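ugh ok so i messed up the first submission bc i forgot one of the chains. this is the corrected input, ALL of the components this time, i swear. 225 residues overall. if the numbers dont match what u have on ur side tell me asap before i send this to the collaborators (the ones from the other lab, u know who)
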Amino acid sequence: DAGVTQSPTHLIKTRGQQVTLRCSPISGHKSVSWYQQVLGQGPQFIFQYYEKEERGRGNFPDRFSARQFPNYSSELNVNALLLGDSALYLCASSPGRSSGANVLTFGAGSRLTVL
Amino acid sequence: LAKTTQPISMDSYEGQEVNITCSHNNIATNDYITWYQQFPSQGPRFIIQGYKTKVTNEVASLFIPADRKSSTLSLPRVSLSDTAVYYCLVGDNGANNLFFGTGTRLTVIP
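and heres the new structure output, hopefully the right one now
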């Protein structure tokens, strides 16, 4: 079975540009989350989507947006890129909202470098 | 959103048992405790999850005292390939907005 797949794996952009990152969850998983991981730090929560609706948003500026498609894949968009947006962007999927236990399966990430 | 506190780093020799303790004083009634492992340039990987007492799987054990304000991840007989960052997370009910913190960097020495 395919795990969580993300594309592209690496990309380089310049300040002010826009970027779109893509994620395909594990088959049957309805929830997708996005995390930003800056070098040397733990992942920081950006968004969660469940059944195509936004269920959570972290402390990120409006330059960050996302959406989830009917097939549960997701895109993360970042506009007006800043040098500080350089990071590993991780997508994680899970079966969905439950009463307690919540295990995320992460993709390998998209490494974004902003010059 | 419950936060966690872990040691920043630990060193261990190959073949030893490693115990990493995590504090989570503000854990809520419905929260589960989950540990992830992360290698450089990879996404975190699920290790183990528990609610109370002890949980064991093929790679680790998780000990949770009755007050649930802390937990201990136990890795039996570590090898060089266990060198990684280990994150302790306390999850809100069904939410994905987990707080990872900085984790514990485990270095296994030959």
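quick check: Chain A touches chain B at residues 4, 31, 33, 35, 40-45, 48, 55-56, 58, 88, 90, 92, 94, 96-109, 111 (CB under 8 Å). that seems consistent at least. Residues 24 and 73 of chain A are 5 Å apart (CA to CA).
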